[in-house]
Amino acid sequence: MKFTVQEIADLIKGTVDGDPKTEIYKLSKIEQGEPGSISFLGNPKYTHYIYQTRASAVIVNHDFEPEQTINCSLIRVENAYNAFAMMLEAYNNLNREKSGISKYAAIAENAETGDNCFIGDFVSVGEHVKIGSNVKIYSNTSIGDNVVIGDNTILNAGVKIYNDCHIGNNCTLHSGVVIGADGFGFAPQSDNHYAKVAQIGNVILEDNVEIGANTTIDRATLGSTIIRKGVKLDNLIQIAHNVEIGENTVIAAQTGIAGSTRIGRNCMIAGQVGIIGHLEIGNNVKIAAQSGISTNVPDGAIVMGSPAFEISNYRKAYVYFRSLPKLADRISVLEKKFKGEQ
User: Fold this and answer.
1) Predicted confidence (pLDDT) per residue in 236-259, tens digit
2) Candidates 3.30.2420.10, 2.160.10.10, 1.10.580.10, 2.40.70.10; correct CATH number of 100-314?
3) Other CB atoms within 10 Å distance of the CB of residue 319
4) What is the pTM of this model?
């Protein structure tokens, strides 16, 4: 696909300094630019690259004033980073412009599909499934009975959605995501064996949710595991049965959340955080990487450590913790001195 510099400028609402007819056919980093590519300058520390780049065009802020000769066209915009992100999204959408149903897909006769859907090779769609319009379902994805999928949702290759789950509008599920596997429910018996507790609930993803590769969200024992609108989940996250995650919360990779914990709105949870079950995490909470959460966390708190506590107190405690060997040596010296004086 080729576009002129002017066509790109029109897309991102910019103005052109240079040749508007130059053709662009790929994207690049500014330091790795090649003829026919376009890049952007969003961080001042990369400014020196704009005088060296071989890219045919670079997106810059309106107020950028070159101090040396530039050999590429400039597209001036209000915010270069945001404009480049807009262009990436448009490029990504063009690459995903697929429609039609593969002859190798297996779709139940009573399943419903909306307009302009794409269903790829070896996709399996179960009984009474409802799929909205403009949905893209890539190869080797499995959708169980009674699943509902909203408009404009993308299921990448190898996604598995178990029966009765609901996926909202404008969601993106990356490869290897599993929605609705059984929650970890086992009842201990007198003979030290465990009896499986049937997991008969479901998972609900509201609108505008994105889930990273190989993340798993378990179905509820009863009721629903709920991921509210706007939530963004990284790769390799485990969310247990009956968890609820509030609107616009973001969670980084390798975090694990145990059953029936409720997490509020607008939270930021870093990587490798462990959260035990049946807790209440408030709104606007921030949890630092590798923290262990074993008690409720109030609104607006920033916590760190395992077990986690308020972050400024943690940092003070850590200063002392790092000094413990020296403190122990000093105490040993003082003890010997004290015994020698007796």
Assistant:
1) 999 999 999 999 999 999 999 999
2) 2.160.10.10
3) 8
4) 0.82
